[in-house]
Each structure stands twice: as C-alpha cells, then as structure tokens.
Amino acid sequence: MRTPRRRLKREETYDQVDMCQKLYDALKAAKDSDGKYITDPFTRVPSRRTDVEYYNVITDPIDFARINQRLRAYEYNSFSDFCKDIELIISNAHLYYKEDSPEYLSATLLQKVYQELKTEHENPSESVETSPSPNFGEKGITSPAGIPDGTKLEHILTLILGKTDKQGRLLSPPFRVLATEDELPEYYDVVKNPIDFKTIATKIRSGRYKSWAAFDEDIQLLVNNCKLFNSSTSQLYKDAVKINTFYEEKKGEILAPKFIIDKSKIIENKRIINALLEQKESNDNSELSEDSEEDEGFEENMSNPLWLLYWEVRNLPNEKKNQPNIADPFLELPNKQHYPDYYDEISNPMSLYVINKRLKSGYYNSLQYLVDDLLLICYNARCYNMESSEFYLAACKLEKFISKKARELDPTVSINIAEVPNEEDEEMGEEEDDEEEDEEEEKPKVERKKRAHVSIAESDNNDSETSFIRPPSHKRRKKSEFTEFGSEIGKQNMVVRKHPQGRKSIEEHQHIYRNKLYRVLNTVKNYNLNGRLISEPLLFVPDPKQFPDYYAKVKKPIDLTTIEKNVETLTYKSSAEFMNDLFTLFNNVRLLYPANTEIVQHANILQENAAATMKHITKGQVIPLPKKKERSSHYKSRRSYGSPGTPSRTPGRASAAAFTSPAPESRRTVVQPQRNVAEEQAKMKEIYNSIFGFRGNDKRPLAGTFVKLPTRDEYPSYYEKIKRPIDLSKVSTKINANNYESLKDFFADLKLVFDNACLFNDPTSQIYKDALILQKEILQLRNQYLNEEICISSEVKLLLMKIFVAVSTFASNGRCLSESLDDIQRFLRKSGVSENEMPFSLDEIKYNLDKGRYRRLDRFQEDFFYLLSKIREFAPLTSDLFRDTIELQKHFIDKRDILIKDILITPGKLYSRSELEKELEIVRKRRKQKDQGVSSETMEPEVSREPASQDVDVLNNSAEASDEAMASIDFDGKAYYPEDYVYVASADDNAPPDAPKHIMRIERIFHDEEGTLVVRGIWCYKPCETYHLATRLFFPNEVFLTPFKDSVTVERLRGKCCVMFAEDYLKSNPIEFDDDNVYVCESKYLGRKQHFKKLQTWPYPEEIEKLKVEKRSEPLKVVKVKSELARDGSEMDINEEKKKARSESTQPKESEENIHESITGVVSERVKNLPRILDIHRDEVKDSKNPSNENATYYEQMLHNGTWYRRGDGVLTFREKAGHCDVFRIDKMWRNKDGEDFISGPYFARPHEVKHDINVTFFKRELIAVEQPDSVMNMNLIQARCVILTTKIYETSRPTEFAECDVFLVDRRVWGETPISDWKQCSLVGGTYEPSISSGFPLDLNDSRPIKKLKVSQI
C-alpha cells in the first residue's frame, strides 16, 4: 500500500526531496536495448472504463505521473516513502501482466535499474572518487574551520544577488525582500516559514550561522518556499531552481582550501550587503500614475485617431511565433523597490499603462503629444538596454511602426526620434594622433556595444511577475566620457563618469541639465536667416555711456552672453528662470524698437524657436536644477489633474502681458490639494464594507461568492478567459497595504471583480445576477463618493443600470423571467429573422451599457422593447415565453417611471402600459389571422444521428407524435421505462463489442411507421464527445445533458445507468447502481464548440424523488481530472490541443444556418463594431426655410459619416497646428451636387483668444460668441458634436447625450475681426443690423454684450 498523503514538515531535511527527485529523473532517463524509455509502459495506469479487470486485480494502482505529482507537491516524507511507490509500480505490473508480456519484462528491467540507482543515491561516496572538495553530506557542507567565515558567506550571497540568466536578467530581485503579510496574505497562508535574502544577510552580520549546514539549510528553505508557492511552469519557480544550482556550484569553489577573496572584493561585498540590509519592505512603485485596465472593446474608439494609434501599437504582433506582442515589455514601469537605478538613469519614465490612463482622462488634445510619449517609451528602452538585447530591438521596431502609423493618421505630425547618449569606450582618452585615426578608419567597423542597462519586460509566463533584465555583474562599465543626447557643447564641457553602470552622479545630472539649456540657447544663437546670424545684435548689452536712454527704458538689461554664462555656472534654478531671461531679452527689444522694424521681427522669430525647442526637450515640463537628495525620497508627479467642478468663475489671464503662449485649457496644470491618505483609506474601507455586507431583496448577502477566486487548477478555463483575475480579498489586501493612489483606482478594481464574474458566468446563473446587482451598487457609490461635479453621463448610466438590473432579476412565482430570454437569438434565427432585423440580446444590451454607449433612455428603451416585441412575433401566444415578455416590459415601464420622475425629460416616457396593451392587441389579432391561414404544423422526418459525429437540430421534435407511446419495454431480460438512463451501442456495424457506449435519457417508447420498436430521448454526452480545451477539468465520471434528441432501436440498448446532479451526488450515493454505472452531471452542452452552460438546478426534479439513495456521512470530495486530450500530462501536447481547439472554433461552418450562431455570454462582432454612442433612429429632413436648388439641397437634419447633425448643434472642427478644436454652431447644412456636405454658422472663441483684463473670470468651458459673417466649412473637418447653452438654460437642464467636456456655456458676445454689412451674414444677430462705434475693437471683451438666447432647431 502507498503511504497516506501528508505534506512534508518544515523541520524535515530537504535533502530527502532532492534524493527523490534525482532518482526519479534517473529512472525516467533510463532506456532499454532498443532505445525506448523503460518507464513508458507505466506512465499512466490503464483506463478504468477500458480495462475494468485491472482494477479488480490491482487494489492500489499508481503510475509515474502520480509520483511526479506527489514530488511536485512535496508529499514524500522521506526517501523510503518514495521508494515504496516505485516498488509498488513494479509489483503491480508483475501481479497483473503475464510473464511473457512486454509490460512484465519492462517491469523486470525497471526493477533491476531501480535497485542499482537506489544503491548509488543512498551511498554517493561509494560511487565517486574522493577528492579534496568539501563533503556534501546530509547535513550540508562542513567547513574545515568549523564556524564559517563571514566574508565567505557574504561573498557567496553577493554572487547569488548578481546572478543573471543568459539574457542578462537578474534572478534575485523577487527574493531580496519578501512582501509583507498585508500585501500578500496568501503567500503566508501557504508558506509557514518565510525567508528572504535580507534575512539571510542579517543572520550573517549577527554571526548566527555556526556552520555551513545552517547556511545551506536557509538557502534550501528559500528555494523550496518558492517552489511550494509557485507553479512549476512559472518563471519564479524556474529562477529558484537556477539559484539553487548556482549556489551548489559556487559553494564548492569557495570552500576549496586555496580559495582567497581579494580585499577590494570584500569591501565591494560589504557595500552590496549593506544596500540589501537597507532595503525596505514597502514598495513605492508609482512615480507615474498607471492604469492597466485596458478595455477589450476598443473598437468603439476606432474613430478617434489617438485611441487608434494606441491600440495599433499595443497589439503590434511579434514576428516570432508563440511570442508576446512587441509592446508587451513596455506595458508598465519597473518596480522601484528592486530597481531604483532605473529612475536615476531615466529622467522621464513612461509606460503604455501611463498613456492608457492619460487617454482616458483626456490628457492628450492632439496626436502630436501622444506620439511624443510613445516615442519616449522607445527612447528610454534604447537608453537603458544593450543594443544586442531583445528589448532594444523591440524598441527600434516599435519606433519605426509608430512613425509610419502616425504619419498615416496625420501627415503633419512631427516624428522626433532622439539619439541615445554617446559613450566612447576608450581607455586611452582622446590623445590619439591622426595616423592612428586613419588606420582605424580603414579597419572594418565592429559593432560597438552600448552601455549595459537593466532591461525591463514582462515574462512570457502568466504566472510570473515582471522580469527585469540586467547584464552580469562582472561586466563592469569602464570609465569613459559621455555626451548627453543632442548636446552641441564642445568636449571641454564633458564630464567623466565615475560611477558604475546604471547610476549617475549629481554632477552628471547637472551636466545633462546644463546641456538641455544649451540646446535652447544654441537654437537662438545659431539661427541663420538668409545667410546671417540674426542673434548677433543680442550678444552684448549697449555701452551705458553711448546709449544712456537704453538703461532708462529697460529695467532689466540682459544679453545672450550673460545668459550663456549663467547656464555654464548653473545659476538658473530651473528651466523656467532660464526662459524668463530669454523672453526678457526679447521684450527689451520690443520695448525699444517699433513693431515693424527688422530687429523686432527677428526677436519674435527667435522667441518662437526657443519656446518650441524647450517644449520639445522638456515635454512641456519645468526642469529643476538637480540637487543632492536622500535615497529614500520618492518622485512626485510632475503633472497633476484638476477635477471638473460646478460652473464657477475662475481667474482669467492677460494674454498680452505673458511671456509664453497660453496653453490650451485642457492641458493647464492645476495644483491639487495634498492627498489625505488616511481619509481616503477610511472611505475605501467604508465602501468595501458596504459592498461586502450588501444584501439582496431576499435578505441574502451577495458578496460572499466573490471573496476568493477558485484556483487555476480548479478552474483553468476561468484564467484563460479572464485576463485580469481579482477578488474581494485581494482588494482588501491592497486597501490595507495602501496600494491605491486614488478612489478612482479603488473603484476600478471593485468594478473589475464583478465585470469578470459577468463575463465568465452564464446570464441565467445566480452568480451573474448577484454580480449585476453589485455592479449597480458600485456605480451608485462611485457617483456618491466621487462627487466633485455631477457627471451627467455617469448619472444616466446609473439610472439605466438600475432599470436593467431590476428587469434582469425580476422574478414571478419563484422564477426569474429573464432566463426565458437565454439564447433567444438562436430561436429567432430558427424562426426566420434575418441578421438585419435581429435585435440585441440581453448580453449585448448589457455590453453596450457597460461601454457607456447609451446616453439616452429612449434609445436604451427602444432596444429593449424591440427585443421583446420581436420575440412576441414568433413565440406561441399561450407559451411562457410570450407571457414573460409582457411581464418584463410592464416591469420595465413601472421601474422607469419611478426612477425618472422629476429627473429626466424624455420622449421614452410616452410609451406607457396603455401603449403596450394596444400593441399586444394588434399582435394577438395578427397572429390569430396568420394561424387560421396556415394548416396544422407538419413534422419533418428525422434522420438518426450519432451524438459525437454531428450537431442535431435542437428544435426538431421528430415525427412520432401520431404514434401511441408505451409505458415500458422488456429487452434482453431488462425492463426499460421513460426517464431511464440507458447505454446505447454504437450504430456502426463494424464497431468492436467493447466499443464505448453512448448514454441516452429515454423520453418515449413507441413503434415507428414501419412497426419497429424504438425509444426516443436526449443524448447525454461524455467529455470525449464534446469540443473542449485540453486544459478543462472533469469529474471522473462526468456527462453533459444536451438538447439533442434522437430515436434508436431497442436492439441497441445495453443496460441502465444513473445520471445525478453534481450537488446531489456529492451528498448522497445511489443504492441500486454500482459506482462504475453512476455518472455526474454539472453542466449542459449546447452543441457548439467549447460551449458549456452550468446548471443551476436539476431540470428533472421528479427523478431525485424516485431515486433510492443513502446520505453520505460527509460531502464527497472529488478531485477533477484532466481531459483525455491532455496526453500524458505533456505541456507541449496540451498547447497543441489548445491551438487545435482554437483553430477549429474559427473554422467556417458548412451550414449557412450555423454561420450566425452566437454563444451566450459572448458578444458578436456586429456589437463590438458599433459606434461609441448609440443615437436614436432618425431620418434626413429637408430644410423648408432654405429651398433646395440644382446646386445644393438644404437639410434640417442630415446624416454624415455615420453621425446625425441638426440645425442648432455645436460642432468641434479641426484646425491645423492648433492645440484645440474650433467651436461652431450649425445654422445651415447642405449637400452639393457632387455629394459633398457643408455647414455654415457662427464661430465661438475661447477665453484665451479674446483680449481681457487679468481680473476677468470665466465659467468652466465658457465660450464667447463672435459677431462676424458665418463661416462655411466642409463637414469632413468635424471631429465631434457638442452643445452650446446659455447659462440660464444650463442652470435648469442639459442634454444627456453629450460628455461634460463637450458642454459649453456662452454668456457674452464680442465683435469679430470682419465687420458685418448685412444682418443675414451672421446667424447670431436678429432683426436689422445697426453698426456700432465699438465694432472697431475686435475680440475685445471690454466691448462685449450679453447673450440671452440662441436659436435652436425645431426638429
């Protein structure tokens, strides 16, 4: 008998495990004389179904796969326990197989090899020659001197800390300092004796290691802890194995008698160990705010070139097969705790997740800014990595792709690919004569390696955390001169780097800062216009004796020479001070000379170029002078975001007095109040407790299911479908560890928990409904706690979500009515509904709701009601489905009226219960007329089909309805009844007698038209008869109910079996059936590839009452097994089956009927490709006030590029080289004879475009109407719709279909630059136009007049 399963105790030695593993590997590698592995016949025991006799003889079966599993789980307590299992395999084979069989002979050979290898492993000293190397005994390594030397311990630990893989990636960072128990509680639940390198270093320094055995035991403990917690396929597991192997190699070298450590190396080791001891557990890894919640349904943003470019870059595939996307290494920033030198080396860190968050917040107001940030990611990677590394090459490929794609989207985009700082690896310096240089030029050029940097990337394996690639520690960089990127300063300004690779001194940082200022200064000094330097008059200030008037007018005399001196001496504390001096110089010129003089024009040119160069270098940031700082100080965000508030006046700005051009309003830097961490954490806990304690209408707590996710082994399909698994316990852990930067990030994780649940579970399941209710609750709490400003789109989304949840969970007579709509699209297709008329399913409506596509209640209601009305067209009038649609629609109307009362003004409210009754009366009348004109339903003859060979029509009910049913039938000495589960032999006449049998549930017994006795029923599929992934796990005897019906002759019946619901089977055991004839059913197979629907209740409750069972003393614990597709547990075979399953699922169906099959819970492509906002259905309406002519047709309402426009709408139009879109209001729309669309209307200026005093205040998003002739433009220039409201209207109501950023207020109007000769030229003006004397001051707010009303469209 095998030893009972018991986990290896911590106090037991790990050498036993190592011996077991080594013997197992040796046995698996042994071959016979024919070159075959002797363990192959015993890799898997025979199948219980195909070889029942084996299990009658062998009471304790075991195979090498099971032994391997026990090894990986550390179940062997000793080497002898492992040997007992090997011997059990051999004895089982000798007991069952005949002496002349190949299996018996293989077992005999295995026994011989096993005995030899076992002797070698038990007595290693006898099998190897003695050597002066230290003795590796069971207690570790004993030092000749007894107590180990601390310097040697520090040396070997330092070697481990610097160990890298072949790509130069450091292995030690995850093992340096463990995460705290608050940050990773699940680790401490599994690992009872945690240890890290910092703990080992502490014990070295305190002299607690009295022997090498103690040190060796701690290293082994660290390695085995990692193996215990992580999967064997994870990168961390593999790294731990490499560390262990490396340690075993190095300890023998260090303990050699002649081994001596150099004194300089001892000092270096102490420095490294000191740094390790100073490392803290807390992890501040958020220099920049990142958002990793990437929206899979990005198709809705395809109209936005910013999102289009982001996703094109994000999903750029790798040329190599089975490799992650090229952009994957640049998704997130490196861990600052493990790699602080990255942030010393890279001054402007950037990642795709940072860009993702900026895109969501509307940070980028032009494609140029996005391109700059994307190229910054590539530049950082090239600066930090070796030229030969994969990540350097990936960055280069990404740069080329970004450049090409950006120019395709906008040819005007500037592509600035910066050069990496030059570093000459020269030991002899610059003192080389010309002859040597000439000789060197004649030699073939050798690719010069760039300085070695840490490479940052994510591991290919999903189980591993971010990997960081570092060159081997012995490849130290030589002292060499370096030049900062783009510097044009001579070599006399260079600084010699004196620090190791990856870290810059403060002098180097200051040198970089100085070079950036020099770049701007040289742009001014070296600007050449028509062959001459126009900056020469600005090099020196005038002589005070010759030009006394200069000093009388100019308060701050300055010249370029003085500015250059200040740059050289680092006088400027920031780049802003430097720019202020430059602008002061240019303003002095404008103060002394008239505006039309040449020197003033030159000053304007120089100022514009200086500002542009500085903006390009600094990315719009202010660069401070680098100063020495404490290592523990953290980077602060260089840019803060102000949240929108209610309409309130904010100070204006005098544009004439400013030295720099005013930035667009969307990119202004707003100073945020200091974050109150304790207050935010308290709010998070309050919200979490609210969700955790939330109860449904039945007083049942809903959050319990979402506290802890199942493991990957229990539900591998979940982790394949869900890209970012998270549960409430992980959210709680992140709260306690203070890992959330803001409440928004916290709400994003909470929402993700329930989004994942809705994505994975069937809509009819209770988990789905609970997640739906909690989603609505989270949305409500989010609006409550993030209430800086009432966000109309969020409020509308919450309102619609409440209606959707109320209808989806509405129950009557103990039954949830929405379950009737499950897979309704398939029913409609069977009924003849075309794809063009196909309504959205509930899943698709929910998808649109989650994406924020519904901005209007009437459109949401229209989609919902259209689904119900379409079902009523085809469902039988007396069916439950017909009645359910009526009840659901009534409940929708009632809930809608309650929620929108005194809140929402909508035409959707016009549809009431009375309208529904009128519609139902029409439907019933039409259906009755149709039924009267159609003869009784005819049945089609059905062809008998094998369950595993092809799909059977779900709705086919065969043709036996006219035959008389029988109560039972006797065949082969057994009686069969309806509702029995029976074995059915294969219909293939050539099938062997022992061929696998099918399972059917009998529903009817009758004689067919030919008089043959047949039984009809539904098939129950075995796993091998379904399409599924090889990673799916099954109960040992699992089957699946199906909707597929068939008729078979009685001669094919082969006995009875029992099929039980999984929950009942775990609690009770059927008395009348053997275990081999009892099958478990947990899900329903719907006949589509890889689609299973989990059963919530057993559909045949009467069976449970009739079945004789006995209660189990305690619920049965069943371990699910792998699919038969997972051959021999081979990971390669599993991957091949995954690919095969995926390729099969993507193959086109032969039947036209199946082409449009959709899987419940999976959103179709037509829904993914919908526009970002779903508008109501409209028609083009011609303008009666502007008659059409042969050249143009005028419209009140018109469709252009998929968007509807009406007279009175505001539009945002593109203007080249502007930081924002121009705002116009449509007064006229027309289409010319060539099919081109145009609009005309008034222009609205932004505050910074008009002249005003500095103390003038503005509303947020306020515009100023400009009285000038209406502008005419092509509608292709329109970027988006917006709404322009007067303050009086905005205070009472506003349209819900526009985002907050697209709602503008207008309170005043000013004169335009072009005077109006006729009032008809400007649609802002009503009545007869009378010119005013104030019209001579265009765009001047001092001459503004109020606006009381804007014309609106009558549509």
UniProtKB/TrEMBL annotation:
GO terms for biological process: chromatin remodeling; transcription elongation by RNA polymerase II. It comes from the Eukaryota. Residues 414-484, 623-669, 927-951, 1129-1156 are annotated as: Disordered. Residues 974-1096, 1203-1321 form the BAH domain. The keyword Transcription regulation applies. GO terms for molecular function: chromatin binding. Residues 626-639 have a biased composition (Basic residues). Residues 421-441 have a biased composition (Acidic residues). Residues 34-104, 167-237, 322-392, 530-600, 698-768 form the Bromo domain. It is found in: Nucleus. Keywords: Bromodomain, Chromatin regulator, Nucleus, Repeat, Transcription, Transcription regulation. Its main location: nucleus. The keyword Disulfide bond does not apply. It holds the Pfam family Bromodomain. GO terms for cellular component: RSC-type complex. This is Protein polybromo-1. It comes from Panagrolaimus superbus. The lineage of its organism: Eukaryota, Metazoa, Ecdysozoa, Nematoda, Chromadorea.
